[in-house]
TrEMBL record:
Topology term for the membrane: Multi-pass membrane protein
Source superkingdom: Bacteria
Record flagged with keyword Transmembrane helix: yes
Compartmental location: Cell membrane; Membrane
Single GO cellular component term: plasma membrane
Record keywords: Cell membrane, Membrane, Transmembrane, Transmembrane helix
Pfam families the record matches: TauE
Residues spanning the membrane: 12-38, 44-71, 83-101, 113-134, 179-207, 214-233, 239-260, 272-289
Primary localisation category: membrane
Family label: Belongs to the 4-toluene sulfonate uptake permease (TSUP) (TC 2.A.102) family.
This protein's name: Probable membrane transporter protein
Native organism: Jhaorihella thermophila
Amino acid sequence: MQIYLPIAEVSVNAYLLLGLGGIVGILSGMFGVGGGFLMTPLLFFIGIPPAVAVATEAAQIVASSFSGVLAHFRRKTVDIKMGLVLQAGGLMGAALGLVIFNYLKSLGQVDLLVKLCYVVFLGVVGALMFVESLNAIRKARKAGGAPAPRRRQRTWVHALPLKMRFRASGLYISVIPPILVGMAVGILAAIMGVGGGFIMVPAMIYILGMPTKVVVGTSLFQIILVTAFTTMLHATTNFTVDIMLALLLLIGGVVGAQIGTRIGVRMKAEQLRILLALIVIAVCLKLALDLLLQPSELYTLGAPGGH
């Protein structure tokens, strides 16, 4: 069933969009990521303009994350206080990211920027998560199948001022690192149309030292407000949010998030992280390949125009 998307100005199969939304929703529930890192490139591949894909995907992430976080609230695996601090940084980052996005849009460089951002961030984060997950699995096996003990040694994070107690996470740390992490994710949300979970989840585990059980729920909680704010900014300044596209992705995403949350509970944290790392690396390689192949295609198309 073909459906015309008025803002994107293209016709797309509605069932394809519902299916894509469902897949991303499952990832959201399993890993605590918005899924935008996967959905935005997929939207590029089916012909959605980059500016529309980024803005509309932010809207879809709000719904799939909200659906996922409800299940985590029921299990009491959300650190609300930490989520609010991360959101404060995220809102500042989103406003800054939109300024950068609009500037590059005026230069006609948004498409290239978005793809380069994906290749760099996904490559680095995917590789780091993969190595960390392998190490965690090795340690667990050496300990006779018991999970690796959480590291409690003091780091540079503990030496910073403005400390606050986060009871749900069992932490007493400075609010500066969570705000900076939130800002980084807010910038990514505005420029790349992602919830930033693929940055947020490892940062919460390895930088902030949060226990894995509350990381996924808290990440989803943080994503909701930041991506909603990003969507509003794009809609009011660029008019690039396609409601019909967002609605179809949203329906699939809400259903998928509930399934993903159930799957995630049955898997070990190390298994979840290594699976997410492999998905991130695969998307990175696909985008890098597209960037490398693109120039030859453009020159080939441009040659007849010169006569």
